[in-house]
Design a protein that fits this description.
The complex is a heterodimer of chains A (98) and B (374). Chain A is an alpha+beta fold and 98 residues long. Chain A has 4 helices and 3 strands. In chain B, helix 3 (98-107) links the parallel strand 3 (86-91) and strand 4 (111-116). The two termini of chain B are 32 Å apart. The chains are: A alpha+beta (98), B alpha/beta (374). The complex binds S-adenosylmethionine and iron/sulfur cluster (2 copies).
């Protein structure tokens, strides 16, 4: 149930160019040297892959292009497209990405 | 807890002033707030923000009283922004013109949390003790027009819980990204007015069910967050995410507190940012170390599986209701002091005179306390 809600597709997934929602900012944590996603309620620590995805959520890259970039950067297998889609959908469900 | 294991604070709550044009019946500010007059200067706040950022703070919540009453607010926002802090303004909205908000936004304000008292104008103004609701709606529209991300906060209680649906609709109509329906926590003025504000269990259950349904229905449109009434839940809130675990509060006069109500606990001494560096206060001050971690706990918390999740609840509530800040929060059904909660829930709401938050009432309360037992 929760899972399905998390991954509910964008109404126009093919043309969607994800970007950070208003009020959400990414910055580095000087202490941990890690990327953080800041919004009023919390700060999320991002691992390297998540940070790379979020960096590409700039309103210019469609989902497929983000997955392509990730595959190039991290040399990952075909599963990466699903992983990127899941992550971005989860971010959208939390209204961090739109 | 060893010093090496101590995590840095992640958020700073800056109570810029206790002055406020409103007098909300539920206000969580300390009832003796009028004692605190000597507000930090612009430069002192700026120094505190810079130190906070240096020791790891990421989020800055500007609150009060009413932060808009500080004429230097834009300057404060600009310097906090220069330190990289994420800046959230928590406000009643009174005094927020379009030009002032534009200046705040351009100085680096990230987000506005605007409080409304009700969806109904007469009800809202009654709780605030002033004609404010219409002006607040105007402010909400201004925030949306200037594209500043907005959370609407409604403190909910007996007088307005039945209009929860209308509050959510209002938040959607105003373009908020999130609506917080926060059950009144019984601290400060809300504790004085507890009988007047306490909802019935049936009323609260209906509201919670409605909020849950709305949250699911509006997913992707607005985030609907209901903060539960700990008296009715029978379990404590994980207050502050744990004492001295992630948050520093600085009160208007510069005292650094582990939570906004901490000064209600007698015997705690609070270091002042005027005289002590924030990093040392966080690490070493007796107040921040008083109930850090779990080693201080008594039974039933000491051996409870929940102790790392709820941290034994709220220290201020434990003192207020059990007379012992190291006791389990009486909101917990396992607490030997849970009777205090049952008794409070059994009190009738009729024939109660509410007390509005005001400087004069605050001075009267302080005098009564000084001449009384504490
Ligand atoms: C004390 S107020 C100060 C800022 C500003 N004057 C305002 O009211 O928005 C900070 C926040 O706490 C909320 N609040 C006040 N009293 C509360 C209570 N007893 N329980 C829960 N939230 C409360 C307010 O609605 C507001 O969002
Ligand atoms: S909750 Fe109401 S009375 Fe308290 S500080 Fe905010 S606006 Fe003022
Ligand atoms: S006994 Fe203490 S730790 Fe356990 S649930 Fe109650 S308050 Fe929390």
């Amino acid at each position: 149930m929760e899972r399905r809600e998390l991954t509910s597709p964008h109404p126009d997934a093919a043309r969607w160019r994800p970007r950070l929602a208003a009020g959400v900012r990414m910055r580095m944590d000087p202490a941990a040297g890690r990327a953080l996603l800041l919004f009023p309620e919390a700060a999320l620590e991002l691992n390297e892959t998540a940070a790379a995805i979020i960096r590409l959520c700039d309103g210019r890259h469609p989902l497929a292009a983000i997955a392509g970039e990730l595959a190039r950067e991290f040399g990952a297998d075909a599963k990466i497209a699903d992983e990127v889609a899941d992550f971005v959908a989860a971010m959208r469900a939390r209204r961090l990405v739109e | 807890m060893s010093i090496a294991a101590l995590a840095p604070p992640r958020s700073l709550v800056a109570e810029l002033t206790y002055r406020c044009p409103l007098g909300c019946l539920y206000c969580s500010n300390p009832i003796d707030f009028a004692r605190s007059q000597d507000e930090l200067t612009t430069a002192e706040w700026q120094a505190a923000f810079a130190q906070a950022a240096q020791i790891g703070v990421l989020q800055l919540h500007l609150t009060g009283g009413e932060p808009l009453l500080r004429d230097d607010l834009t300057e404060l926002v600009a310097s906090a922004h220069a330190c990289g802090l994420y800046i959230n303004l928590i406000t009643s909205g009174l005094g927020l013109s379009g030009s002032r908000l534009a200046a705040l936004r351009d100085a680096g304000l990230d987000h506005v949390q605007l409080s409304l008292q009700d969806a109904d104008e007469a009800g809202a103004d009654q709780v605030a003790g002033a004609r404010a609701h219409r002006r607040k709606l105007e402010v909400a529209r201004t925030v949306a027009r200037l594209k500043v991300p907005l959370t609407l906060n409604f403190v909910v209680h007996r007088l307005n819980l039945d209009r929860l649906g209308a509050m959510i609709d209002l938040a959607v109509g105003l373009g908020a990204r999130r609506v917080e329906l926060a059950s009144a926590q019984f601290h400060g003025w809300a504790l004085l007015n507890r009988r007047y504000l306490m909802p019935s269990r049936a009323q609260n259950d209906r509201a919670e069910a409605l909020a849950r349904a709305a949250a699911a229905r509006l997913r992707g449109v607005i985030e609907v967050a209901f903060v539960r009434n700990d008296y009715l839940v029978g379990a404590p809130k994980p207050c502050m995410g744990g004492w001295g675990r992630g948050t520093i509060v600085i009160d208007p006069a510069g005292r650094a507190l582990p939570c906004q109500a901490a000064a209600s606990i007698p015997g705690l001494e609070f270091a002042n940012v005027r005289t002590h560096p924030l990093g040392a206060i966080w690490r070493d001050s007796p107040a921040f170390n008083a109930w850090r971690g779990v080693a201080w706990m008594k039974e039933p918390c000491r051996s409870c599986a929940m102790r790392e999740r709820d941290f034994g609840g709220c220290r201020c509530q434990a003192f207020a209701l059990a007379g012992d800040p190291a006791a389990a929060d009486p909101a917990c059904e396992l607490s030997p002091h849970h009777d205090a909660i049952r008794a409070a829930l059994a009190e009738p709401s009729e024939n109660v005179e509410p007390v509005y938050r005001a400087a004069r009432a605050s001075r009267a309360v302080s005098v009564a306390r000084t001449s009384g037992k504490n």
